[in-house]
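Complex 163.
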Amino acid sequence: MNKITAYIGLGSNLATPKTQLLAAREAINALEGVSEQAFSSLYSSPPMGPQDQPDYVNAVMAIETTLPAITLLRNLQQIELAQGRERKDERWGARTLDLDIILYGEQLINETDLIVPHYGMATRAFVLYPLAEIAPFDLMIPEKGRLDDLLAACPLDGLVKLK
Ligand code: ROI
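Predicted structure with 7,8-dihydro-7,7-dimethyl-6-hydroxypterin bound:
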């Protein structure tokens, strides 16, 4: 089977966010057809969007996978639900766990449920800095450019690496 390197963004700002991210890491590792290549440090970041919610803990995980992108997405959504994620109408609200496919090889995916590269990734400190910890600096992000160029243009926005 063809193996693809994919990057998953993890975020949580409810119900002990650190624990949520570490549990998600275990659950992703337990998926058939997925193996972890690297896991970034955990970062704390002020909420982007509505400010009346707790700070987030964010991280990025690199995996190698034989799963098609849409199957990977469905599996990640199962993990979100298993960890108590509730779908609310409010856009950009607090959540126990958010798992996004930020990159899937160098593929461009434009489906109703799945847009890759993730639309916000090129300008979000809480994605770019953890990604840069575990990805090659010259990683090409389709339609957005090189990782090191994106990083140089991205202020930290209050992002702090956790110990
Ligand atoms: N803000 C931060 N800092 N981290 C996130 O993961 C995050 N996720 C979101 C919104 C609500 C856009 N804000 C965020 O979905």
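The chain is about 25% helix and 30% strand.
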